[in-house]
Design a protein that fits this description.
With 214 residues, the chain is of the alpha/beta class. The chain has 2 domains: 148 residues, 3-Layer(aba) Sandwich (Rossmann fold); 50 residues, no CATH class. 22% of the residues lie in helices and 36% in strands. The strands form 2 sheets. The protein has a 7-stranded mixed beta sheet, sandwiched between helices. The longest helix has 13 residues. Bound molecules: S-adenosylmethionine (SAM).
């Protein structure tokens, strides 16, 4: 079974259906906007974005994930990315920004900022601070054919570790993760970005723009 460097099981991401992510991005983007999607996985969000009329370049460091992407794709660590062009929208989804590793977050945000045009928007899906107070073992649900359940939630200061269990078609997978509670202003300022707006009522999606100088 193929598992990415961050522990994502490829088969699970092929089974999981889109869950409205592309529509959130589309509503916040200009019509036909070019989109750089960071951490695209197998294209669960990429493909609906293409269907909504966007030019999407998908980036992931997993060849096993990218093998399923039906759009221009670049295999790279996000923090090392340098495509020599800018996009109308850079998408950093899947709560990658909540990585426990501060250096990885800084590198990801710097790469995102570098690929934004002057009027571009960074669109981020994150765990908002309040999620860290409310998430609990046993939570989960059904997404498409995939049953999802969280266990072993442990809090240590700003860090939260847990295991997510997936079950579908008589098979089971698990993914352990640790994520960090963030202060939005600190995150954006450190990457020379300014808050734009919330994209969902639960504040799990927001957009940001390059900070104007002078
Ligand atoms: C949880 S999966 C989500 C995939 C996709 N965004 C989705 O929603 O279906 C996270 C993906 O991000 C990729 N990823 C995580 N950190 C990365 C990094 N620093 N550079 C490149 N890819 C990364 C993993 O390989 C994996 O495919």
């Amino acid at each position: 079974m193929e598992v990415t460097a961050d522990g994502s099981p490829v088969e699970v991401y092929l089974l999981l259906p889109p869950n409205g992510e592309a529509e959130i991005v589309h509503a916040a983007a200009p019509p036909g906007a070019s989109i750089l999607e960071l951490g695209s996985g197998a294209g669960r969000v990429t493909h609906p974005l293409v269907e909504l009329g966007h030019e999407v370049v998908a980036v992931d460091d997993s060849a096993a994930m990218l093998a399923h992407v039906r759009a221009p794709a670049v295999r790279a660590r996000i923090g090392d990315l340098d495509l020599g062009r800018t996009f109308d929208v850079v998408l950093l989804g899947s709560r990658l920004v909540n990585t426990e590793k501060d250096a990885d977050r800084q590198a990801m945000l710097a790469a995102a900022r570098q690929h934004l045009g002057p009027d571009g928007r960074l669109i981020v899906e994150w765990h908002p601070p309040e999620w860290f107070d409310t998430v609990a073992s046993g939570q989960g649900g059904l997404l498409g054919d995939v049953e999802i359940e969280l266990s072993d939630v442990v809090r240590r200061g700003d860090l939260l570790s847990a295991t997510v269990h997936y079950a579908a078609r008589g098979r089971r997978w698990r993914q352990e993760f640790t994520c960090r509670r963030l202060v939005l202003d600190d995150v954006l300022t450190s990457a020379d970005l300014a808050f734009d707006r919330w994209l969902t009522p639960d504040r799990s999606w927001f957009s940001a723009r390059p900070r104007r100088r002078g």
